[in-house]
Amino acid sequence: MNTNEEQYHTSARKIEDAVESQLFGKPCYKINGKAFCCFFQDEMVFKLDGDAHSAALSLDGSQLFDPSGKKRPMKAWIQVPIDYLDKWDEFTQAAAKFVGG
Length: 101
Fold this sequence. Notes:
Layout: H1 3-13, E1 19-23, E2 26-31, E3 34-40, E4 43-47, H2 50-58, E5 63-65, E6 74-80, H3 85-100
Antiparallel strand pairs: 1-2, 2-3, 3-4, 4-6, 5-6
């Protein structure tokens, strides 16, 4: 496991009731059976809405999550580069709140 993946796990495990799972064959964490974050291409991906979605997408290098690579991004999911590791915990919390209610 590399450092980025370790940080992904560290951020996600701070969420109470988070369970490790899979999303499109990628490691993810879920609450009540709903995915809120995953790890893809050495970056963390978050399911976000509102201000958190806008803030994540505004970061240089961030993009809508397109796991198939066929230009069909998932609009609620934002892939955030390791350059913004300091924001991963914040986005993880926002994603968990969005999915978990």
